Amino acid sequence: MKTSKTLSDRLPALGVLAFCLLGAGLLGWKFFGGPGNPNVVDVTMPPLSDIASAGKQVFDANCAACHGDKANGTDKGPPLVHNIYNPGHHADGSFLMAAKRGVRAHHWPFGNMPAQPQVKDQEIPLIIRYVRELQVANGIVYQPHKM
Question: DSSP string covering 57-83, please?
Fold first, then answer.
C-alpha cells in the first residue's frame, strides 16, 4: 500500500533544501557577482582645508580617473583612502615619487602606475594634503610599518 506524504510531512526536507539553495546563492554572489567593485571603498568627505580643497581640484583633474572621485578607487586603480596608504607605510614622499616617477605594482592587481609629468611639482603637496585629510576623516592614521 502506497502512502502519500502531506505538505506538513515534507516541510523539514523543504526547509533543508531552501537553506542549501540560499547558502549556494550567497556563495555564488560573493565570489562571482557581488555588487560593485571590491576595490572601491566608501569614503566620507570631510570639510577640507583651503590647501586640501586646492589639492582636490588637482586630484580631480589628474588622479580621479584611476583612483576615484574621493580617492575611493575604481576598476583602474586602488583606493588611496585605504590603510595600505597610512603615513607609516606610505609616507608623503611615496606619493611624491609615484607622481614624479611612477610606481611598480606591488599591493594591487592594476599594473604599474605611470609617472604623471603633467602634474607640477608645486601641485603634488596639495594632492597629498587632500588625500591625507580624506584618510584622517575616514579613520586612517599613522601606524608604524612592520615587515
Answer: HHHHHHTHHHH-TTS---SSS--SSSG
Give the CATH H-level superfamily of domain 50-137.
Cytochrome c-like domain (1.10.760.10)
With vertex at residue 103, the alpha carbon angle to CA 100 and CA 107, rounded to the nearest 5 degrees, is: 145
pLDDT in tens, 78-117: 999 999 999 999 999 999 999 999 999 988 899 999 999 9
User: DSSP character for 85?
Assistant: G
**Length of the chain as a residue count:** 147
Distances from the Cα of 109 to the Cα of 39, 66, 94, 112, angstroms:
10, 13, 19, 9
- Choose among 46, 65, 43: nearest CA to 129: 46
C-alpha cell belonging to residue 84 = 595600505
CA 84 to CA 49: how far, in whole Å? Answer: 24
The domain limits of the chain are 1-35, 50-137
